[in-house]
Amino acid sequence: MVRITEDLLRKSSEHNEGIISTLEEVALHQRDIDKIENIGNWCRELKILDLTSNVIPKIENLHKLKKLEYLKLGLNVIERIENLEGCESLKKLDLTVNFIGELTSIESLQSLQFLEEMYLMGNPCTEFEGYREYVVATLPRLKFLDGHEITKSERIRAYQNIHENRPIIMQQQKKHLVQRQKEKDQSCLLEEVSKDSEKITEEVKSAEEEAAEEKKFWDEQVPYTPETRMRVHDHIQKKKEERENANKPKTKERRERKLVADDGRILNVNEAKFDFQLTEDDEQQTIVLDIAVYRYMDTSLINIDVNPTYVTGTIRGKVFQLVLPEEVQPSLSQAQRLKTNGHLVLTMPKMKQIIKPVNAAKSQPVKSPNAQESRVETSSEKGAEILEIDPNAAGRSIDYRNIIKENEVIKKSMASRQPWWTKKSEERAPDEDFVDDPDVPPLV
């Protein structure tokens, strides 16, 4: 059975943008609802309420709907009209095809000043002698009954015969209630018998046997009572569930994942199948675990716990467990998400820290005093000369121009770097056939 919940009302109020506090019309037909609840608390502005084709046995919890104008309760299992006195604005009431046999219960509607139209077709009370005259005389403001307009002459005649019709109605009603009690007792016996038969015949049946039973169920002649309607409803629901279960794909049974071996060893598990990288930082003396989780995955879906010898946790509900190569300090470990790719990085300091000097001097080999220098000086070592001033030259003037000793290599390199215009041109000897003509002016 289905209950009237806030989610159900919101789904049925899409025309009102899902807002139920200002909802004026809602349709909850064919929802297998078996009880009216919560509507009066959440939908105070409701004007039209449709609860057709459900299995509601009683009218209740509608007294807070002061603005309700149209109430549809057709095709349910209601046996009595009640609890509608609080619906002050009710104009139209539909109770078609129910099981109302207590006709005098309509007297509770006399306080509804705006009630003009009512439908009771398909109820046992409509078969009572004098039914229409009794209803017309009991509800003087009614204008339409079962889709037919009430004329003035019909109303006058109903007022005249009310005292005669009422005892007849009461007598038929009493007879109906006795019959209903017998039907209830009989249905209880049939229900017990059917349960016993179901327990006996729990074996798997063939398709032909199921088809024969289905045909027998629908061909069986039973009295028209609320119990039979409920029985039909339960049968339909059972067949519907069987079809849905048959169409569902069979899921494999998920075997239990072992995190610890039988001998107590921690196992490596990666159910989520995320790529990861485990590295050791010798300088910082830490172990770094980089798990390639999705960049836009919500961090609330990640739950990782660092232990001294292993890392365990869940990522999107899947288990991730990894054994560490060395013992770490969980209290000093850090976890962070990278902003570039969203990876989860765990930095775990090692438990056994190796103490190293901060500035360790490089050890040089000891040279023997008699050893000869066999190493060839490089060009860089040649050029690395220390500039020092002769201590014996104190008091004398120092020629700073000759601080650096020039050698032949430097002189040649400097000479090669002189501009072309500073170089002196050498005079070339004249050719043998050269004739010095005094009449020719000089070129320069």
The SSE order reads: HEHEEEEHEEHHHEEEEEEEEHH
**Mean pLDDT score:** 83
Structural class assignment: alpha/beta
Strand order of the largest sheet: 1-2-3-4-5-6-7
What is the end-to-end distance? 124 Å
> Percent range for helical residues?
25-40%
User: How many helical stretches?
Assistant: 8
Q: Uncertain segments of ≥5 residues (pLDDT<50)?
A: 368-381
Strand content: 5-15%
Please provide the count of β strands.
15
- How big is the Rg? 52 Å
Shape designation = elongated
Describe the sheet with the most strands.
7 strands, mixed
In words, what does this structure look like?
The structure is a single chain. The chain has 444 residues and is α/β, with parallel strands linked by helices. The chain is 26% helix and 14% strand. It has 8 helices and 15 strands. It has helices spanning 6-11, 39-42, 131-138, 152-200, 207-219, 226-247, 379-383, 408-416, and strands at residues 25-27, 48-50, 70-72, 92-94, 117-119, 144-145, 148-149, 269-270, 276-281, 286-291, 302-306, 310-315, 318-323, 334-337, 344-349. Strands 1-2-3-4-5-6-7 form a 7-stranded mixed β-sheet, with helices on one face. A 4-stranded antiparallel β-sheet has the order 8-13-12-11, with no helix packed on it. A 4-stranded antiparallel β-sheet has the order 9-10-15-14, with no helix packed on it. A hairpin with a 6-residue loop joins strand 14 and strand 15. Helix 3 (131-138) packs across helix 4 (152-200). The chain is elongated, with a radius of gyration of 52 Å. The N and C termini lie far apart (124 Å). Mean pLDDT is 83; it is low at 368-381.
